[in-house]
Amino acid sequence: DRSIKIAPSILSADFADFGREIRAVEDQGADWVHVDVMDGHFVPNITFGPPAVAAFRKHVRTVMDVHLMIAPVDPYIDAFARAGADIITAHVEAGPHIHRTLQAIRGAGAKAGVALNPGTPAESVEHLLDLADLVCVMTVNPGFGGQKFIDMTDKVRRLHAMIGDRPVHIEIDGGVDPTTAPGLARAGADVLVAGSAVFRGGSVSNSAPYGENIAAI
Ligand code: DX5
Ligand code: ZN
User: Pathway, per Swiss-Prot/TrEMBL (predicted)?
Assistant: First the structure.
């Protein structure tokens, strides 16, 4: 279904070749590019900071979707906005003031996303929906690519109803593949992040078939 956007996560790309990896997935059908920022504190893994994200920006021609798995968030919002993030998503679990965080993201000129871990209920974002452009439903516990999908279909349905006619995307992150995607789309998701299902351990340098993998989702 082409009304569903596919956002490959470059967490599963070749880390020595991000420019070519980004251009390859975009040329082969990616709608957005998803960038996973991890701090070794909020999640048990470390990835990219603002200078790396600014370097990715030079290659992204679609939408750079930056998922912050960091705590605290607020001191870094301006740096990620200046690095060129189109969307900045923060976790509802990352601090006591997610409402302020979403205001600050919009204030910095980016679109604001709010992410929920698998153990966090849909209702935790109920009072944030007028401040958010995107709700990201995690279908793995964040930190690593290639984990087993955790079914959150009921949460997606509840969020879809709660959002109503507001212009808020529902994004799914974790374990998205051709077997899990259709049910998520039916439940109301419109943006699917996919890392291992797009890159499949391959890279642009060995001509991995990203287009086929994206089309299959
Ligand atoms: C997990 C990240 C995801 C991850 C998804 O913490 O937020 O974006 O890269 O990877 P897959 O699609 O392999 O589950
Ligand atoms: Zn992510």
Answer: Carbohydrate degradation
